[in-house]
Amino acid sequence: MEFGLPGSAFQSEIQVLQSKIPYRGRLAPSPTGYLHAGHAVTFWRAQERALSASGKLLLRIEDLDRDRCRPEFRAAIVEDLGWFGLQWEGALILQSGRRAFISKRGSACAIVAWSIRAPARDGMS
């Protein structure tokens, strides 16, 4: 089964909407170990993208894995990113502190995702 990309009119509409929404990028490392060179490259690109779009870059720590996440790794992430010259806006966001928000929004997102379907092909729906 093959699904096509949305038509050009739909893509144009998306571009118009995206041009009206300020850019917000994020760094979202998990504090399950120390950062490595791949993180540095990815995070640097995220910062450059945010700067070029006159947008914001946020730092959100993905600390939901209670068994593997460690406070010393979180502290090392913040220190390493600062040493590398990365700058983010606002306070550090801990994903674990957003559980109630995520569960409320997650349910709504699941309903929307479920309702978006590809067009029927070959008599299939």
Query: How many β strands by DSSP?
Result: 3
Shape: globular
Uncertain residue segments: 111-121
Task: Provide the succession of SSEs.
Answer: HEHEHEH
How much β-strand is present in the residues? 5-15%
Largest sheet: 3 strands, parallel
Strand order of the largest sheet: 1-2-3
What does this structure look like?
The protein has 125 residues and is mainly alpha-helical. The chain contains 4 helices and 3 strands, in the order αβαβαβα. The protein has a 3-stranded parallel beta sheet. It is globular, with a radius of gyration of 19 Å.
Provide the fold topology.
Blueprint: H1 8-20, E1 24-27, H2 37-52, E2 56-61, H3 71-84, E3 93-94, H4 99-115
Parallel strand pairs: 1-2, 2-3
Offer a concise description of the structure.
The chain is mainly alpha-helical and 125 residues long. The protein is built from four helices and three strands.
Keywords:
125 residues; three-stranded parallel β-sheet; 3 strands; mainly alpha; globular
